[in-house]
Amino acid sequence: MELVPWRPFGEVGSFRGEMDKLWDRFFGQRPLAGGLTEEWLPSVDISETEDKLLIKAELPGLETKDIKVNISGDLLTIKGEKKKEKEEKDEHHYCMERYSGSFERSFRIPVDVKADKVEAVFDKGVLKVTLPKVEKAKKKEIEIKVK
């Protein structure tokens, strides 16, 4: 007979792992998951108005030359690299929470947009990408007539 150590939370840990995988498949990579690796993912807000989509990405410490924005079909991609600061030889780190390295985030655009009219503005560490909708994608209220 073989003795096996009892791990009361072993099943919970594997259940947690499966839930994390399911979450990642449904919503994509979680931004905070990059904190344990060299890759980091900027936080993003996505909003919609009647005539446009707006994507705002927090990119502190970057410069315009470090960022690329591309649109191909219904996929918008924001990528770039945050360079690591040069360290002093006699400097000792006790805690390092700031991210560095490359990133890439892609978003499926749920409506048709005017790709030639997309604008990207970078100001105070925030990238704002405006995607104007095409006429047919705009919500249109239909008047109800009385007979």
Task: Write the SSE topology.
Blueprint: H1 10-27, E1 44-48, E2 52-58, E3 67-72, E4 75-82, E5 101-108, E6 119-123, E7 126-132
Antiparallel strand pairs: 1-2, 2-7, 3-4, 4-5, 6-7
Segments where pLDDT lies below 50 for 5+ residues?
31-38
Q: Which structural class matches the secondary elements?
A: mainly beta
Q: Determine the strand fraction and express it as a percent band.
A: 25-35%
CATH T-level fold name of the largest domain: Immunoglobulin-like
Mean pLDDT across residues: 80
How does the major sheet shape up? Answer: 4 strands, antiparallel
| Tally of distinct domains | 2
Shape: flat
Q: In the CATH hierarchy, what is the architecture of the largest domain at level 2?
A: Sandwich
Number of helices: 1
Helix content: 10-25%
Strand order of the largest sheet: 1-2-7-6
N-to-C CA distance: 86 Å
The first-level CATH class name of the largest domain = Mainly Beta
β-strand number: 7
Rounded Rg: 22 Å
- Series of H and E elements: HEEEEEEE
